[in-house]
Design a protein that fits this description.
Elements lengths: L2 E3 L6 E6 L9 H11 L4 E5 L2 H6 L15 H11 L4 E7 L1 H15 L5 E5 L24 E6 L7 H4 L8 E6 L10 H4 L3 H17 L1 H9 L5
């Protein structure tokens, strides 16, 4: 099952998976999807099996190890059957899973890019347990949107990581893991940060074809 936002005739379809602890229709996911749809994306949200099972109310299975979800992400792409340009990604763990399957899909021409909202660079309080190994040589054009005080990877921490030049990072001042700022501290509202995220994602997606051609020709865009 998918949740859709945005125009059916959009140039770019964006497939988003949820984070480890909240479903595809959580307030955070819903707000992000609607902001992205407002800039012209067709946004499709889906759930991994363990999260869908929680809706029955009979059990609360824990999230499996992220790489165990790779086949389910690939199955969602097949089920969606998007026409035109497809960008994959998600919130937190959902974006991490998308990042692990991205290169094979990009190299075969099935996707155009990767969008991660609050990438979980490490578990909270465990900065030594990095989840960046596959991001060093990532070939897929990627945009990571991250709050500067995200406990899964602050601006200061991420600035020390070795990451692929294919990755662009948009930093949102004082944003947390849901990209929400403390208005009294930052002067920004959550809605303003989501608007900035969506506009940046739209501009980035508009450059994807040129970026792909440049990288295939061995030229830095």
């Amino acid at each position: 099952m998918f949740l859709f936002d945005g125009p059916d005739e959009a140039d770019v379809t964006l497939l988003l998976a949820h984070g480890a602890g909240a479903p595809m229709d959580s307030p955070s996911m819903t707000a992000a999807a609607k902001a992205l749809a407002g800039t012209g994306f067709r946004v499709a949200r889906f759930e991994f099996d363990y999260m869908a099972a929680r809706r029955s109310g009979t059990s609360r299975p824990p999230p499996p190890r992220a790489d165990k979800l790779n086949p389910q992400y690939l199955a969602a792409i097949d089920a969606l059957g998007a026409a035109g340009k497809l960008v994959i990604g998600g919130k937190s763990m959902g974006g991490r899973v998308a990042s692990m399957v991205a290169d094979g899909l990009f190299e075969s021409g099935r996707i155009s890019g990767l969008l991660c909202l609050g990438y979980p660079f490490h578990p909270p309080g465990k900065p030594e347990q990095l989840r960046t190994g596959h991001l060093v040589d990532l070939k897929t054009p990627a945009l990571i949107v991250q709050g500067t005080r995200d406990e899964f990877g602050t601006r200061e921490e991420v600035s020390t990581y070795e990451l692929s030049p294919a990755i662009n990072i948009l930093w949102l001042e004082d944003g947390d893991h849901d990209l929400k700022p403390r208005k009294r501290v930052s002067g920004f509202s959550a809605a303003e940060h989501l608007g900035t995220m969506a506009e940046a994602a739209s501009a980035w997606a508009g450059r994807l074809d040129a970026t792909s051609r440049a990288r295939q020709a061995g030229v830095e865009p």
